[in-house]
Specification:
12-stranded antiparallel sheet, outer membrane lipoprotein receptor (LolB), chain A, mainly beta, about 220 residues
């Protein structure tokens, strides 16, 4: 239930925002802002980083992966990944307490030591260049605070002539301190526009974290 509330709150932040004029910008400006926000946000320990990914087929969500990363400090974090697919729920937990000092668990009770990650990435992108990319920014107000929303919209050629073009849209909301509030990604095909993936990343700097310690067993 808590994860659903987090997801809904981020969506409502977008819906309730007061939209102003959109301004087209260049790639170098977009990259400069993104790089700066990444550095500042990732250094602002402690915080909770949540990623919710929906995989969609024929207009319906077929699986959802929710990853909650409680980052206490550099190389010290608790990652909980929950997957819901075909009506089944599974969960994995990773504790990182130092370089190559990881502990993996399926239930939060029994742990195994590992030098490597307990699980891999949710998905990865193919290394190909887009046909076109457009960048823009607009000023908005979220919860009474001014923010900037940066948009990156990319179009990709299909790998086969019989397939459709793909699109990828990223909306990054950055606060007045230069920190990310959220990043919303949407992917799919064009003509007509069909969404196959939605991902929302959000950062929480207010909730107090439970200390990250190695398990006793």
């Amino acid at each position: 239930m808590k994860l659903i509330v987090v997801f809904t709150a981020v969506l409502l932040a977008f819906v309730s925002a007061i939209t102003a004029q959109t301004t087209t910008i260049q790639k170098n400006e977009y990259d400069k802002v993104s790089d700066s926000a990444s550095i500042q946000t990732n250094a602002a320990f402690p915080f909770i980083f949540t990623v919710i990914t929906e995989f969609i087929m024929n207009g319906k969500t077929v699986s959802t992966v929710t990853e909650v990363d409680e980052r206490e400090a550099m190389m010290r974090e608790r990652i909980t990944r929950t997957t819901v697919s075909d009506g089944k729920l599974s969960q994995k937990i990773q504790l990182r307490v130092g370089f190559r000092q990881n502990y993996c668990s399926d239930d939060g009770t029994s742990w195994r030591r590992s030098e490597f990650e307990c699980f891999g990435p949710v998905n990865f992108y193919a290394p190909y260049e887009p046909d076109s990319v457009k960048y823009s920014v607009r000023d908005e107000t979220v919860d009474g605070n001014p923010v900037n929303v940066y948009r990156e919209y990319s179009i990709f050629s299909p790998s086969k002539k019989t397939e459709k073009k793909n699109f990828r849209e990223r909306l990054s909301t950055i606060d007045g301190n230069g920190h990310y509030i959220s990043v919303a990604d949407t992917e799919g095909t064009l003509n007509p526009r069909i969404v196959s993936l939605r991902r929302i990343q959000s950062w929480d700097f207010k909730t107090r974290l439970k200390a990250i310690e190695p398990p006793l067993n």
